C-alpha cells in the first residue's frame, strides 16, 4: 500500500498533493489515516502537501479538522525548494485566515525568513492582508522589526505598497512593544 499511496506523476505529485490541492477533504482524511502517506514529500515545483494545504479555503469545522491533522503530521516549517517560503508565508500572502490560524496552532514559526529575507508578516503586508497582519501581530514571539535582504521591514513594505492602514498597525505594534520593554526594564 505504501508504494501505491506515494506514487508520483511526472510533476512529482502524490495522491495527497492532488487531494489537498483539489480540496477533496475526504480523500485527504483517508490518506492521513493510512499512516503511509509521505506528507512532507516535495513535488517537482518544490511544494509539500502541507504547503498546498495552506492555500485551502476551509468552509466548515470538518474541513478545518482534516487540515489541522495534515499540519500536525507534517512539517509546518518546511521551506519550498525554489524561494524557501513556508506554508505560513503562502497562507499569509493569499489571505487564508483559517489556515493561518491552524498553522500557528500547529507550531508554525512566525519569524522564519525565505531566501529574500521575507517573513510571513512581510508577505501579508506586501499583499494587503490586514486581517492576517492582525493575527500575526498578536503572536507574543513575533519580531516585527526583522529586515529582508533589501533592508526593508514589514512596516516599510506595507507603506511602499500603499497599505498605510497595515503600516499603522505595524507601527503601533513596534512602538507599543518598545514601550512595554522600557517599562519592564525600569521596573527591574
TrEMBL record:
Keywords: ANK repeat. SUPFAM superfamilies: Ankyrin repeat. One of its GO terms (cellular component) is cytoskeleton. The keyword Cytoplasm does not apply. It comes from the Eukaryota. GO terms for biological process: negative regulation of actin filament polymerization. ANK repeats lie at residues 11-33, 83-115, 116-140. It holds the Pfam family Ank_2. This is Uncharacterized protein. It comes from Ditylenchus dipsaci. The lineage of its organism: Eukaryota, Metazoa, Ecdysozoa, Nematoda, Chromadorea.
